[in-house]
Amino acid sequence: MSNAGFEGFDYENNYHLSEKEEKSENWAQAKIWVVLGLLMVLCLGLTIYMNSKELILKYSGNSVVTEYKNGEASVAVQDDLGTKHYIDLTSTIVANQDGKITLYYMGENIAGAKAMTAFWFWVAMYSIWIPLTSLCVYFIVKNLNQGKKNKHSQIREY
After folding, report:
1. Helix (H) or strand (E) holding 146
2. How large is the angle between the packed helices 119-144 and 146-153, nearest 10 degrees?
3. Residue 46 has pLDDT above 90, yes or no
4. Model's pTM, two decimal places?
């Protein structure tokens, strides 16, 4: 004998959540997307900040061109006084510039010179963070509006 046939079983499942319970349920489903969305916004903001710092340095700072072999970890630059400075390039994705590299620095601080990050890196970062952020926003809105759509689509029978 099946347990589904006992007296009192609701075959039609007419139980509906209250409005407060529905909002709570929708928010519970949207929480993970809110957390992921905040993480994506943080990553996108960091990318914009780093890219803008490089652009400000490039267009407002001084530059020096020096010899560079692809894959080297550092380059040597000599200032006007004859002091040699070694610039670390290990944390920078450098664009291939045919044996030369342009370093940018502010003021007279040639020891703080930096190479520009390759353009393709910024394109890749923006094409990752913008769609992922948009996707998170889409799912947040979808989950929070889910109850409103269900409420309007219900047909009440009297």
Report:
1. helix 146-153
2. 40
3. yes
4. 0.72
